[in-house]
Structure to design on (987 residues):
């Protein structure tokens, strides 16, 4: 399915969270990482929606962990950033920086 | 600690299956963490917020709009699978598929054939532009009992000049023309029309021009418009008939200029056999302007409605009355929509037949649904296995519905083919019964109807067994139940369906019996005239060569003599109208009688020729018949029938009386026995019989009594007429029996059709009850085996099987009697003369139906009695 190579803001944030978390990225940690760093509250529904889309676009991979008792005997699904995801992140960043050129962050045009 | 239960359930319910475990796990893990960090209340609050905020996103993903078809099969690919599977299933079970398809085809075919007829004849507008604005206009003389009478030219001209509510008004009269051909003469049906008639109908010629006002003037050069089929016959090489325009056609001994050709789809209203139109050249000044012979059609003016037209014509008639001679003052006007005029008489019966066909369709559906139910019960094991292997209940339902759709479509296609055959049969019974028969054809609308029927049937068949399935048993139970426990699920629905079938079949059978009884009573009526051994043929003298009455008298005298001389002919004569083919009326004026009312009574008359009474076996009960001189030369005599004597002459001796008719005085010379010349169902009306010389009509129907088969004389009769005048041609040569048969053709048509439906319904109901019983015997084979082994006598087994069947039959019959009463009353209301109150028919039909139903249960019951316990028990797993 043809899709733009641009990342949405939330997708961008999710991929960055995966990058920061490394091996320990699964639903709970990702959600907390984002909340802690952005101060925005994130619902699991929104998070899973974004993760599913990113997986479909080939930006993230998954693996199933072992069941654990604190999860009611349920397994974790770990996510990791794939090379394509890394590339997409970098391209997105450079595009944003390019567009920001000449404007100081925080500056407002009167 | 556990997360809040409700929120957890909500979350679990909303989340896509693939994510459920992980999302719930994540949330529970974090819930536990927060409980440690901030306390359980905060954790629960957090969990609930998470759940509520996620539902929307979860559901959106679940419904799949953004979800790729990763693991789920696409709709089309599963459909294809289902189709293949369904076809394989049907092939594998021909014992189920064949009866089901055949039954469906029968029901759909019958309903389609009747729907086609109803659609074309009744539902569709007439094939004229804005046909809903077309009306037919009649003269009416209520005191004389002439309710829908031909129009007098004087009235027609009056309306034409003064009416504002009609945009166009035209008159016509069908007529027969003799076309001079190389072989002699050929008779062609046509009509004389006023120039305005084609405007009324909104028809334009495809070649040449219409009839112009100038063509319609008395004395104008004769012109003719041809129908497309006649044009094709005259010159097949000219498409549309363009080459014919401007050529001359020898009609009735005069060359007629062909001015135009009508479109191929044009049917003359009520007279589809009309092949050519000639200008009427009506003249308001002719002496016959007061006679009633025109058929009048009009097109309502824009903005005017039927009620306004009726009011206006009524006032025109009232205004004209004072100017008219006293004899003509009681005439009023009737206006009815043309559509109603043409199809009104058949609309009720046809709708009734459509109802019957739909009932039949309902029976077939019930039967097929029963078959499917039995089958789905038998497939319980298969379906349970499929469910256990992971087929969702929606998936199984879809499979079942696909199977029933396949079944319905096959049945529908077969039904469509069957309906074409049925339609041909319907029309072959007698096309003349149906107005607009020429327009009947199977088309897209009909195919659409079949499609709708199939879809309805498929949904019905598919959902009933699926609903039964929804309550279906778990795998283990279903698998272990096969063979032993009576899998009676769905059997109460089946029994209900079968009882319904019996009820409907009984209602149809009763209705058919009533119609057959009605038909027989019509055929039993003694009309007062003979019908067998009589040849009838029509002859019409062209006005050009036979304009003078004396010439016509000479010709008919010669023709009748020629016919009499034919070998095998006992007597020959003619009449200007045969019995049962309408009436002509004149005022009855008895010479010397004081006039008691301002308007003399109207009385039917027949102009007769030769041995009319002898041929038809009508006895002269008093006085004598006409002498040859009276018949062919002087015409000064008249005969009356008994009904006229008793109504108008009282104590007077009719033989001493003289009547005034056609501008002269006639001596009554004899009294004729009454005959039902008007209609088989009505008692005889007063009638006069005038000798040919007194009423020398150009067109006569000749009759000849013979001891040979009448039609064997056709050729001889034709050449006998040609020896008198080679330019003349006989038409409509047929036996009188044939003609009288046509009169009862409509009741026969209805009776035959309903009887066919009833027969089918009866057979289907019998099959239905047989199926239910046979199925229950098969299901209970093991149980019966055990019973027999334990010492049950055959009688006990018989009772166990037959009693439920009989209860079913009794329930169906009881319901059927109720519906039969309703149907009978409807029949009585729709078809004139049907006697709905006939207990004998009701009882006979009920007993017959009950017996058939009982018989249908006996066959499987016999099989149950022969069950060998050893074999039955060994078969059990």
């Amino acid at each position: 399915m043809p899709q733009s190579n641009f990342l949405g803001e939330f997708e961008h944030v999710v991929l960055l969270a995966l990058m920061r978390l490394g091996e320990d990225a699964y639903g709970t940690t990702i959600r907390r990482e984002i909340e802690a760093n952005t101060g925005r509250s994130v619902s699991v529904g929104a998070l899973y929606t974004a993760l599913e889309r990113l997986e479909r676009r080939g930006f993230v991979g998954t693996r199933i962990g072992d069941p654990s008792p604190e999860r009611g005997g349920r397994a974790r699904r770990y996510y990791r950033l794939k090379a394509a995801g890394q590339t997409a992140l970098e391209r997105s960043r450079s595009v944003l920086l390019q567009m920001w050129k000449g404007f100081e962050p925080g500056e407002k045009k009167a | 600690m556990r997360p809040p239960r409700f929120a957890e359930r909500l979350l679990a319910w909303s989340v896509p299956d693939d994510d459920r475990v992980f999302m719930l796990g994540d949330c529970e893990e974090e819930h536990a963490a927060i409980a440690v960090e901030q306390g359980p209340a905060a954790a629960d609050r957090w969990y609930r917020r998470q759940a509520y905020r996620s539902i929307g996103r979860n559901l959106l993903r679940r419904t799949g709009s953004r979800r790729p078809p990763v693991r789920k099969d696409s709709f089309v690919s599963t459909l294809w699978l289902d189709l293949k599977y369904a076809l394989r299933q049907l092939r594998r079970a021909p014992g189920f598929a064949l009866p089901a398809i055949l039954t469906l085809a029968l029901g759909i075919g019958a309903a389609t054939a009747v729907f086609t007829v109803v659609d074309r004849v009744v539902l569709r507008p007439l094939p004229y532009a804005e046909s809903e604005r077309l009306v037919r206009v009649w003269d009416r003389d209520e005191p004389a009992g002439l309710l829908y009478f031909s129009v007098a030219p004087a009235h027609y001209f009056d309306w034409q000049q003064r009416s504002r509510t009609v945009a166009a008004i035209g008159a016509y009269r069908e007529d027969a023309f003799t076309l001079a051909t190389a072989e002699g003469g050929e008779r062609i049906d046509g009509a004389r029309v006023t120039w305005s008639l084609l405007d009324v109908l909104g028809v334009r010629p495809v070649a040449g021009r219409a009839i112009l006002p100038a063509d319609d003037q008395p004395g104008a050069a004769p012109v003719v418009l041809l129908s497309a089929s006649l044009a094709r016959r005259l010159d097949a090489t000219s498409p549309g008939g363009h080459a014919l325009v401007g050529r001359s056609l020898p009609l009735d001994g005069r060359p007629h200029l062909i001015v135009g050709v009508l479109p191929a789809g044009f049917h003359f209203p009520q007279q589809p056999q009309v092949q050519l139109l000639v200008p009427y050249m009506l003249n308001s000044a002719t002496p016959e302007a007061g006679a009633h012979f025109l058929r009048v059609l009009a097109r309502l003016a824009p903005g005017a409605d039927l009620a306004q037209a009726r009011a206006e014509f009524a006032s025109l008639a009232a205004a004209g009355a004072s100017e008219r001679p006293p004899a003509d003052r009681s005439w009023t006007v009737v206006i009815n929509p043309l559509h109603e005029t043409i199809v009104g008489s058949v609309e009720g019966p046809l709708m009734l037949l459509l109802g019957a066909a739909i009932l039949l369709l309902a029976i077939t559906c019930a039967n097929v649904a029963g078959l499917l139910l039995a089958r789905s019960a038998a497939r319980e094991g298969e379906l349970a296995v499929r469910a256990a292997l992971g087929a969702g209940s929606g998936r199984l339902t879809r499979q079942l519905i696909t199977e029933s759709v396949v079944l319905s479509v096959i049945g529908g296609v077969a039904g469509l083919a069957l309906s074409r055959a049925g339609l041909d049969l319907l029309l072959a019974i007698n096309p003349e019964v149906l107005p607009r028969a020429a327009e009947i054809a199977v088309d897209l609308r009909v195919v659409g109807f079949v499609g709708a029927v199939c879809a309805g049937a498929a949904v019905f068949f598919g959902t009933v067994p699926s609903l039964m399935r929804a309550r279906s048993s778990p795998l283990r139970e279903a698998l272990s139940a096969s063979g032993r426990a009576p899998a009676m699920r769905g059997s109460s629905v089946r029994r209900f369906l079968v009882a319904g079938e019996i009820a409907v079949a009984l209602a149809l059978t009763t209705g058919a019996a009533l119609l057959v009884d009605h038909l027989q009573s019509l055929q039993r009526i003694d009309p007062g005239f003979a019908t067998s051994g009589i040849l009838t043929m029509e002859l019409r003298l062209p006005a050009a060569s036979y304009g003078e009455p004396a010439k016509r008298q000479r010709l008919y005298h010669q023709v009748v003599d020629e016919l009499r001389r034919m070998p095998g002919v006992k007597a020959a004569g003619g009449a200007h109208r045969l019995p049962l083919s309408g009436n002509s009326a004149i005022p009855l004026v008895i010479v010397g009688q004081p006039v008691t009312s301002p308007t003399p009574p109207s009385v039917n008359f027949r102009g007769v020729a030769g041995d009319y009474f002898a041929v038809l076996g009508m006895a002269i009960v008093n006085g004598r018949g006409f002498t040859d001189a009276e018949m062919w030369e002087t015409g000064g005599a008249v005969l009356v029938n008994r009904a006229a004597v008793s109504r108008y002459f009282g104590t007077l001796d009719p033989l001493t009386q003289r009547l005034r008719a056609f501008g002269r005085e006639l001596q009554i010379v004899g009294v004729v026995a009454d005959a039902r010349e008007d209609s088989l169902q009505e008692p005889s009306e007063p009638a006069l019989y005038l000798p040919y010389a007194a009423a020398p009509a150009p067109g006569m129907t000749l009759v000849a009594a013979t001891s040979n088969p009448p039609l064997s004389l056709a050729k001889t009769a034709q050449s006998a007429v040609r020896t008198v005048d080679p330019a003349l041609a006989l038409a409509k040569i047929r036996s009188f029996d044939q003609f009288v048969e046509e009169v009862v053709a409509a009741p026969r048509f209805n009776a035959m059709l309903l009887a066919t439906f009833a027969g089918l319904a009866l057979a289907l109901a019998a099959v239905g009850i047989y199926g239910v019983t046979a199925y229950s015997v098969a299901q209970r084979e093991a149980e019966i085996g055990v019973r027999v082994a334990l010492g049950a006598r055959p009688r006990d087994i018989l009772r166990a099987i037959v009693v439920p069947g009989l209860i079913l039959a009794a329930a169906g019959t009881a319901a059927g009697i109720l519906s039969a009463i309703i149907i009978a009353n409807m029949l009585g209301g729709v078809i004139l003369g049907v006697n709905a109150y006939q207990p004998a028919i009701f009882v006979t039909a009920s007993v017959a139906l009950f017996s058939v139903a009982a018989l249908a249960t006996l066959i499987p019951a016999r099989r149950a009695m022969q069950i060998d316990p050893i074999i039955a028990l060994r078969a059990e797993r």
User: Anything to note?
Assistant: The two ends of chain A are 42 Å apart (CA to CA).
